[in-house]
Design a protein that fits this description.
This protein has five domains: 109 residues; 34 residues; 96 residues, 2-Layer Sandwich (Ribosomal Protein S8, Chain: A, domain 1), CATH 3.30.1370; 115 residues, Hypothetical protein af1432, CATH 1.10.3210; 82 residues, Alpha-Beta Plaits. 70% of the residues lie in helices and 8% in strands. The chain is built from 16 helices and nine strands.
Length: 513
């Protein structure tokens, strides 16, 4: 019992002590909370003051920015208003000008209508006068209207023909005076042609066969061998009744040489089929390219030139397979270079440039079957393309007088070319083919009315036509020269150019291109 009482007393004492301790703690916490609240209140007031200051500053800046933008906008509006007012003023002036023009047009329309009425009245009077004149003419001449019309038309036709011939001559003379350079370009040769007789000797070669059986093997089953050969080489194979021979025909001398060597090797080997043909063509083409390049290098070395473009050397090598009237063009070019070089030394000119012009003067013939134009112009363009000096390509361009020579080297090239070509034995041509070409040329000229006689001169490069002076007038002679040149172009084939001269009291000169 005693223990129980002691325990109760201890409990009461503990509870009482706990109450006093808790109350003291609450007071301490309350005091601390009051300090925190006061501190927070002061910070809030400080923050509010700073926010008010910041807001006022931003508001002030915004107002200033707004005022500035408003001022700029007002300025822009004022300027825009000025421009609009100026445009309105311009439009008003244009409207006034348009009104004045409209009034002018209206007045002109009225004047035109009045003028048309006057013209209609005058035309009516003219028609009446024509009818009166016709009746008077019929009465005086004793001719009907149809007969008078026929005579008038005949007279008018003669007058028009004479006027046309006179106008043709006058137009040509004016064109020569006002546009001399353009006239020269017009009469310059556009394409260097080959006559049929010349083509026959220059583009064909004959291959001998060991037997007639070889023709069948060349043709192949259903013609497959000959088609493969022509496709691979670009040369036509002509097989006719000529015993133990076939003919290769083509304009390109390099391809013709390729076909000749290939066919000779195939005949010697005996194996002829499309695959073998292609294989042999490839081998021969490779060997031929090396031969062409070597030939060009040898020509350059013989002449003694330096720094020649490889492509120019290759083109020179192609001339090894080109012939002009049986004269090898590459040998001819080397000879011209040597002759021109010697003449240049005598005249105190640059020998190297003279030799270059002489060696390259016919280089256009290497590609003239592939490119349109005369070989002189083609060669000049090629040389300019591959970096040759202007004196060189200008000399090549004018060596056939197609353009006016600028330097002396072109004149020397013409002289050296003529010397090399005209020396005894340099060039030859079949007499029969030569006579046939001259006869055809004279026949064309003699077919024109009023021609008395004609003569083919300078190996067919010129035709001189003599007309009857009582039949052909001077103006008609000019027209006849043009007509003869056109007919020659249509009916004949020939290399270079043919000069047509019609002779009466004056001479009219034209060139058949």
């Amino acid at each position: 019992m005693t223990y129980i009482i002691i325990g109760l007393i201890a409990l009461v004492v503990g509870v009482t002590l706990g109450w006093f301790i808790g109350r003291a703690k609450v007071k301490a916490d309350t005091k601390a909370a009051g300090g925190i609240i006061e501190t927070a209140r002061k910070q809030a007031e400080e923050t509010l003051r700073e926010a008010r200051v910041t807001t006022q500053e931003e508001a002030l800046k915004s107002r200033e920015q707004f005022d500035k933008e408003s001022k700029d906008r007002r300025q822009e509006l004022l300027e825009m208003e000025k421009r609009i007012m100026q445009r309105e003023s311009n439009l008003d002036r244009k409207a006034d000008l348009l009104d004045r023009k409209t009034e002018d047009v209206s007045r002109k329309e009225v004047a035109i209508v009045e003028r048309e009425k006057e013209l209609h009245k005058i035309q009516t009077e003219i028609d009446d006068l024509k009818k009166l004149a016709q009746r008077e003419l019929e009465r005086v001449a004793g001719l009907s209207a149809e007969e008078a019309k026929k005579r008038l038309l005949m007279q008018l036709q003669e007058d028009i023909h004479a006027e046309a011939a006179a106008m043709t001559r006058r137009i040509i003379e004016e064109a020569k005076q006002e546009a001399d350079r353009e006239a020269k370009r017009t009469i310059t040769i556009a394409i260097e042609r080959c006559a049929s007789s010349y083509v026959q000797t220059a583009t064909n070669c004959t291959i001998a066969l060991p037997s007639e059986e070889m023709k069948g093997r060349i043709i192949g089953r259903e013609g497959r061998n000959i088609r493969a050969f022509e496709t691979a080489t670009g040369i036509n194979v002509l097989i006719d009744d000529t015993p133990q021979a076939v003919v290769l025909s083509g304009f390109d001398p390099v391809r013709r040489e390729l076909a000749r060597q290939t066919l000779e090797r195939l005949i010697a080997d005996g194996r002829i089929n499309p695959a073998r043909i292609e294989e042999e063509v490839a081998k021969v083409r490779e060997e031929l390219d090396e031969l062409i390049h070597k030939g060009g290098e040898e020509a350059v070395i013989r002449v003694g030139l330096q720094k020649v473009h490889p492509e120019v050397t290759r083109l020179l090598g192609r001339l090894r397979f080109r012939h002009s009237f049986a004269q090898n063009v590459l040998d001819h070019s080397v000879e011209v270079a040597e002759i021109e070089g010697m003449m240049a030394v005598e005249l105190g000119l640059n020998q190297q440039i003279a030799k270059r012009v002489g060696l390259f003067h016919d280089i256009g013939k290497a590609v003239d079957h592939e490119v349109e134009g005369s070989h002189a112009k083609i060669g000049a363009e090629l040389l300019r393309k591959y970096g040759e000096p202007e004196e060189v390509w200008q000399g090549v361009a004018c060596h056939h007088h197609e353009v006016e020579p600028i330097t002396t080297y072109g004149v020397l090239a013409s002289a050296a070319d003529a010397i090399s070509a005209s020396r005894p034995g340099a060039r030859s041509e079949s007499m029969d083919l030569y006579l046939q070409r001259l006869e055809k040329l004279e026949t064309v000229a003699n077919a024109f009315p009023g021609v008395d006689k004609s003569y083919a001169l300078q190996a067919g490069r010129e035709i001189r036509v003599f007309v009857q002076p009582n039949t052909v007038t001077d103006d008609e002679a000019v027209q006849m020269a043009r007509n003869i040149s056109k007919k020659i172009e249509q009916e004949l084939q020939y290399p270079g150019q043919i000069k047509v001269i019609v002779v009466r009291e004056t001479r009219a000169v034209e060139y058949a291109k």
